[in-house]
Amino acid sequence: MLAARNIVGLALLTAGALASWYLARQNRGEEPVVAAFDAVTRGYYLKSARILGTGPDGHLLYEIQAESAEQQSDDRIWFTDVKINYSPQSEVPWAIIADTAAIHQTEKRVLLRGHVSAVSSEGFSGDETELRTQYLELEPENYLAETDQRVQIRIGTRSLTATGMLASLKDNQLTLKSNVSGKFVP
């Protein structure tokens, strides 16, 4: 009886091995299924990013430095801990910092958010100038900075607040849109 059991067990193991061999041989012609890697939808991620912008003549116009840069699926590049400087040749003495920034592939604007500060030692009226807001749209090739949000402006010892602003950084001209109030010390 024990021998019969062993023979039946051996027959079952042999049948299982043959079935396994047959199935493995049938699947040999098929290519393995591999998930497609789409680099465009995944984008890229950079640490200590440095992006250079050039003017129409091809010369360096500005530089964006960021702690990180990440391409999103909506063709935007998101930056964190951002600093933007114009090149010395552009003669635009402004430095701009922000918590985050975004650039869309089809637009020529940099959208800055969170503790945005633009500083120039030769700003408006030739005095040190600082602009502070939570949101700023910068057109670096046209030297324009604009916001519709609350902005604080310090020009030397004078200070102003307003809702909305358009600044030409190249010409050092400033237009305040509404709700202007200020403090002027003689």
Description:
This protein is α+β, with helices and mostly antiparallel strands and 186 residues long. Helices cover 16% and strands 54% of the residues. It has two helices and nine strands, in the order ααβββββββββ. The chain has helices at 2-26, 39-42, and strands at residues 45-54, 60-71, 76-86, 94-104, 110-120, 129-139, 144-155, 158-168, 173-183. A nine-stranded antiparallel β-sheet has the order 1-2-3-4-5-6-7-8-9, with no helix packed on it. A hairpin with a 4-residue loop joins strand 8 (158-168) and strand 9 (173-183). The protein is elongated, with a radius of gyration of 31 Å. The protein starts with a helix and ends with a strand. The mean pLDDT is 83.
Q: What attributes does this structure have?
A:
9-stranded antiparallel beta sheet, alpha+beta, lipopolysaccharide transport protein A fold, 186 residues, single chain
